[in-house]
Design brief:
By secondary structure, the chain is an alpha/beta fold. The protein contains 19 helices and twelve strands. The chain is 60% helix and 10% strand. The strands form three sheets. Strands 6-9-10-3-11-12 form a six-stranded mixed beta sheet. The protein has a four-stranded antiparallel beta sheet with strand order 2-1-4-5, with no helix packed on it. A two-stranded antiparallel ribbon has the order 7-8.
């Protein structure tokens, strides 16, 4: 939590002026009981109406000055709190953007959303309340006690006993509730995660008629959260009745002591009223302190949760971000490099992509997801990657743009290890179309320009034509200006996929990765898409990940994966003769072939 206070450094003036004006307001508030005492002892006792009016005008003046001080303090406190939250939110978002897929998988999307929104709002409220009340309430409490001693020492002893007892209650509740509020936020993360899964997977849930199971699962976690919140709420709720009990008990003793002292002529009736007023002020401020402490507890717990995200360091850093990449001092080679690489031969021009015995273990996984991946892809070559579900197809292509880091061996682009590139330079060379088509709210033009901000409308239409999307875009109202809703809700699955392909083509990348990105397209559209990409100018290297054998039959080479390992490399005809895994995939989709080697 302390590390987050750095975001208040630009609001030092507000952090000083906010509490200062609150202390000024508190000072005027402490004067009020003395003015009331003067009205009773001098004005009422003597029947002096002019004196009473004068003192009442003084009370109004004190109220107006106090109101101005309060509003000013609120302005500075709000400015500092909102500014701190804004800076914190920007910094947290920037930090999350630096995290690799590995950290995002480990931390979880739902908890990051909670910490970006709910937790930062709690910190903002905590900072606001601290600047306004953290000094004011103790100042009023101890100031009222000091003022009571100026009136009568014997009566003021009641304050000396009451304040420590109240402090024990307040701080005791605080110590118990702090860890519990952290558990509440963790339970809230679970509920948000389940909610997010149900919303994104609603079609699957309905398709398998699992609504009741999901309701039961949500009810279980939500009930656990409710019970925990009720438990914490009951503990926090003890604060008000206990403080009121102690305060009212102290009030009774104070009135009794004051009455005895007034009857003896030691103090006046107005001074007894002033003492009661001071005790009432203490009651109000302690109630405020109780609420303040509850909110501070929440803010500290949320601040610690935010700090935990900042402590997560990205495992993949750009070569310009201070990441060191070990090279052997004698050979000048990085970890996993060899003299020639896979099938590199003696060509002067290095291959576009080269995997050198690459392996991958996901965080928290017990086994390798990829084992000894070793192949090359030349410039202008089209590589198909096929395999069963979970065979590691996406994992292979995710190593090229360094979405994940190879845990063994190396991956090279244009002859250089990907770890030697700045991430921005590496990813400018690569266009990736992921399995899940992701579009952002805005026009078609705005979505396509993610690939190239400077692209002209002609270039956008060229990319749409190659992606087989021009036909349906021309039918949309406004064409390139057609508004896409969040996530592309107003488009079909095939339309979303074609637009994401067009977005990648707009960038004119050296390497294009199509990660099962045509699964929603019919066979005819898929064939036209592949033909259009093949005709595009330049030496673009294309990786096509697909579960359809038909989608990769015409590529230059096919990689067949099984359980994270390459079990076959070659053309369609070669694999039909020699690779059993490819034969099984082909048979499952087209039936048993007639003739053709092993089949």
């Amino acid at each position: 939590m302390k590390k987050l206070l750095v975001y208040l450094k630009d609001y030092k003036k507000e952090c000083v002026l906010g509490p200062l004006f609150k202390l000024l307001e508190a000072t005027f508030e402490l004067i009020v009981p003395l003015v009331v005492a003067a009205i009773i002892d001098t004005g009422v006792a003597a029947g002096d109406k002019s004196y009473i009016m004068k003192m009442c005008l003084l009370l109004v003046l004190l109220a107006v000055i106090g109101l101005v001080c309060s509003i000013t303090a609120q302005y500075f406190a709000a400015k500092a709190a909102v500014g701190c939250a804004t800076g914190l939110r920007h910094a947290l978002f920037a930090h999350i953007e630096r995290l690799s897929f590995q950290e995002l998988d480990t931390v979880g999307t739902s908890t990051l959303i909670t910490r970006m929104t709910s937790d930062i709002n709690q910190v903002q409220n905590g900072v606001n309340l601290v600047l306004r009340l953290f000094l004011r309430s103790p100042f009023i409490v101890f100031g009222a006690m000091v003022m009571a001693f100026t009136i009568d020492v014997r009566a003021a002893l009641v304050f000396v006993v009451a304040i420590p007892l109240l402090s024990i209650v307040v701080f005791g509740v605080m110590l118990i509730s702090i860890p519990l509020y952290k558990k509440v936020q963790a339970a809230l993360d679970l509920v948000l995660g389940i909610t997010r899964e149900n919303l994104t997977g609603s079609r699957v849930i309905r398709a398998f008629n699992r609504q009741e199971d999901e309701r039961a699962h949500f009810r279980e976690k939500n009930d656990a959260l409710t019970k925990l919140q009720l438990y914490v709420g009951r503990i926090s709720a003890l604060m008000n009745p206990l403080t009121y009990l102690l305060i009212n008990g102290a009030m009774i003793v104070l009135v009794w002591t004051g009455a005895v002292q007034a009857d003896s002529g030691v103090i006046t009736q107005g001074e007894v009223v002033a003492l009661v007023n001071y005790m009432s002020q203490i009651l109000v401020e302690l109630v405020k302190s109780a609420n303040l402490i509850v909110n501070i507890n929440k803010a500290v717990a949320c601040g610690n949760r935010i700090g935990e995200v900042f402590e997560v360091e990205p495992s993949i850093l750009s070569n310009g971000d201070g990441q060191t990449w070990n090279r052997d001092a004698a050979t000048g080679k990085g970890a996993g490099e060899n003299d020639g690489g896979a099938d590199s031969g003696t060509d002067a021009e290095p291959p576009a992509v080269e995997f050198i015995h690459a392996g991958l273990v996901y965080a928290g996984a017990g086994e390798e997801a990829l084992t000894d991946i070793h192949f090359t892809a030349k410039r202008g070559e089209t590589i198909g990657i096929i395999g069963g579900t979970g065979s590691g197809k996406s994992s292979v292509v995710n190593l090229i743009p360094r979405f994940y880091e190879a845990t063994d061996g190396a991956v090279k682009v244009n002859g250089r290890d990907v770890r030697e590139y700045a991430l921005s330079d590496l990813r400018e060379k690569i266009g990736v179309v992921p399995q899940k088509a992701v579009l952002f709210q805005g026009s078609i033009r705005e979505n396509l320009k993610w690939g190239n901000r400077e692209a002209t409308d002609e270039e956008l239409m060229e990319a749409l034509a190659a992606a087989q999307a021009k036909e349906f875009v021309d039918e949309k109202e406004g064409r390139l200006d057609y508004h896409i809703e969040q996530g592309g809700r107003n488009l079909s699955g095939g339309q979303r996929q074609r637009l994401t392909i067009a977005r990648a083509l707009v960038a004119k990348p050296e390497i294009l990765i199509l990660d099962d990105s045509a699964s929603a397209l019919d066979f005819a559209t898929d064939a036209r898409l592949r033909a259009a990409i093949a005709k595009m100018s330049g030496q673009m290297t294309v990786f096509i990940v697909s579960q359809r054998a038909a989608s990769i039959q015409e590529v230059d080479r096919i990689l067949v994966l099984d359980d994270g390992a390459v079990v076959g490399i070659g053309t369609h005809e070669t694999l039909l003769e020699k690779c059993r895994v490819y034969q099984e995939i082909y048979e499952s989709q087209f039936g048993k072939a007639s003739g053709g080697g092993a089949l």
